[in-house]
Amino acid sequence: MKIGIVCPYSWDVPGGVQFHIRDLAEHLIRLGHEVSVLAPADDDTPLPPYVVSAGRAVPVPYNGSVARLNFGFLSAARVRRWLHEGVFDVIHIHEPASPSLGLLACWAAQGPIVATFHTSNPRSRAMIAAYPILQPALEKISARIAVSEYARRTLVEHLGGDAVVIPNGVDVDFFASAEPKAEWGGRTLGFIGRIDEPRKGLPVLMAAFPEIARECPDVRLLVAGRGDEEEAVASLPPELRSRVEFLGMVSDEDKARLLRSVDVYVAPNTGGESFGIILVEALSAGAAVLASDLDAFAQVLDQGAAGELFANEDAGALAAAAVALLRDPARRAELSARGSAHVRRFDWSTVGADILAVYETVTDGASAVAADERAPLRTRLGLTRDTSA
Amino acid sequence: MIETLVWTALALAVIGVYLSWTAGRLDRLHSRMDAARAALDAQLLRRASVVIEVAASGALDPASSIVLYEAAHAARQADEEHREVAESELSQALRAVFADAAQVEAVREAPGGEAAAEELAAAVRRVPMARRFHNDAVRAARALRRHRKVRWFRLAGHAPFPLAFEMDDEPPVDLADRP
């Protein structure tokens, strides 16, 4: 099958959606499909052979933060050329509702279109205003995928219609077969995520840490992720600061080894998560997982069967649960065993098969994707401007 | 005077372009709906055929085989009006027969059963998928067709009002669920 995938965010900036698309594309290529990914990227970044650059993304304030997006004549023209040259059986657009390549591709294409909705933003006024603009583009999508039941609910509330739930994929064996590192083992808690992003929940963990250290005097906390380390430990009593080790940004290999080594992986995120891929990775590595009881997390952890949940933002509950887990190796082993079995459904072999089933369902009896000749005049004008690039 | 005429002509032209664009949108929605319906038909037929194959294979006990065969046969023969009920009954029959994980094992252990069980699992997983896509297309088409501009200018022509396909498509847990 010839598959075109549209990535809305810069290929050169690491992020969940980008990793998902990279893994999906590589999985599909391994299965023998022809895949082309259209992604924003600086023209001088080295790209894998299956990625086509749609030009540099422009930083603009959007949705409360600065987002790097693609829009305008040049991007629209590149989207149309990519569609024209690719002659895809199906195109798979990620985040079609964000004002970037996904939306442009929706405008410009006709034929079998699959779309994945990753985020679950609360309903905003901008969304309501944008609805009539989005609708004509979004109604071209033949099949919608939401990454979790929670993301599906927000999608249904915001845009109407329905979607099938297919979780994000993880290469389970990569994590399961990683070599544990001795210096990261032995009474350790792990945390991976942006240090200076309060929604990732490190402050909650820091508030709970003195209590955990009192009960388990030899406990250490390993933190991997970007951010200001001084500021992160500022709330801790000085004698405890040496127990917190910052590893900075870690490679995929080190992330897997870290997750294999720690006794308990803690995910104290306070909100804004629609899936929780890191939990799946921790489960794959066989770590006992302790997570806040966000909707998305509870779902990944099978409502608490594959990992412990604590009341969101409650440092006391986090401390109590962490101490109980650290003291009970049998319980940790039980969680680890159940987690390893549960996580198989998130392996790429399963997730990839489901996504392919969606592709096959929408391409049944439909013709290939083509540029939409009914697209508005200005998009067509865009085409005439970009004859050189 | 001339000025008024020019403005009127201009306004009419703009309205005309807008209406033609809306008609194009509607046309696209209708073709999406037709494609989704064809895909749903294909998945339902596929499911019925696999069920008949399994029922005829003798891998299951005779009572289960007859229940499955009857339901699948009825679903395949049903006319448009009774299709939703017949397909729902096939879903119920499948759930009843495969309520016990041992039944799934029995199919797997028969010669060639592994492939048949895989195919059956794929079929029962894809029916709800195809139905969801179809009903999503129907919803989008209905939303546009109910709009004033479409009703007043009869942009939908004689196309029948789109109807969702309502059925019980819950797959048997032991068959569709993965380890």
List the helices and strands and how they pair.
The complex is a heterodimer of chains A (389) and B (179).
Chain A: E1 2-6, H1 16-30, E2 34-39, E3 51-53, E4 58-62, E5 65-69, H2 73-86, E6 90-94, H3 101-108, E7 109-110, E8 113-117, H4 125-138, E9 143-146, H5 149-159, E10 164-165, H6 172-176, E11 188-192, H7 202-215, E12 220-224, H8 229-233, E13 244-248, H9 252-261, E14 264-267, H10 277-284, E15 288-292, H11 295-300, E16 308-310, H12 315-327, H13 329-342, H14 348-363, E17 370-371, H15 377-385
Parallel strand pairs in A: 1-2, 1-6, 2-3, 6-8, 8-9, 9-10, 11-12, 11-14, 12-13, 14-15, 15-16
Antiparallel strand pairs in A: 4-5, 7-17
Chain B: H1 2-57, H2 62-77, H3 83-97, H4 101-109, H5 113-145, H6 148-152, H7 173-176
Helix pairs in contact in B: 1-2, 1-5, 2-3, 4-5
Folded structure, characterized:
A seven-stranded parallel β-sheet of chain A has the order 3-2-1-6-8-9-10, with helices on both faces. In chain A, strands 13-12-11-14-15-16 form a six-stranded parallel β-sheet, with helices on both faces. A two-stranded antiparallel ribbon of chain A has the order 4-5. Chain A is elongated, with a radius of gyration of 22 Å. Chain A has helices at residues 16-30, 73-86, 101-108, 125-138, 149-159, 172-176, 202-215, 229-233, 252-261, 277-284, 295-300, 315-327, 329-342, 348-363, 377-385, and strands at residues 2-6, 34-39, 51-53, 58-62, 65-69, 90-94, 109-110, 113-117, 143-146, 164-165, 188-192, 220-224, 244-248, 264-267, 288-292, 308-310, 370-371. Chain A has two domains: 2-169 and 347-383, 3-Layer(aba) Sandwich (Rossmann fold), CATH 3.40.50; 172-344, Rossmann fold. Chain A is α/β, with parallel strands linked by helices and 389 residues long. Chain A is 42% helix and 18% strand. Chain B is built from seven helices and no strands. Chain B has helices at residues 2-57, 62-77, 83-97, 101-109, 113-145, 148-152, 173-176. The mean pLDDT of chain B is 89. Chain B is mainly α. The A-B interface holds A 110, 112, 136, 139-140, 142-144, 160-164, 341, 344-345, 350, 354, 357-358, 361-362, 364-366, 374, 376 and B 21, 24-25, 28-29, 32, 35-36, 38-39, 42-43, 122, 125-126, 128-130, 132-133, 135-137, 139-140, 143-144, 178-179.
